[in-house]
Amino acid sequence: MLTVTGLTVIRGRGRQQHCVRLPHLELAAGQILAVTGQSGCGKSTLLEALGLLLKPEQVEVFQLGQPSIDLAALQRAEKESQLAQIRAQHLGFVLQSGGLLPYLNVRDNIQLPRRILGLAAESERIEQAIVTLNLEHLLNKRPSALSIGERQRVACLRAIAHEPQLLLADEPTAALDPHSARRLFEVFLDMVNALQLSALVVSHDWALVKSFNLPILQAHSEPGESTFALV
Ligand SMILES: Nc1ncnc2c1ncn2[C@@H]1O[C@H](COP(=O)(O)OP(=O)(O)OP(=O)(O)O)[C@@H](O)[C@H]1O
Question: Is 0.85 exceeded by the ipTM?
Answer without folding.
Answer: yes
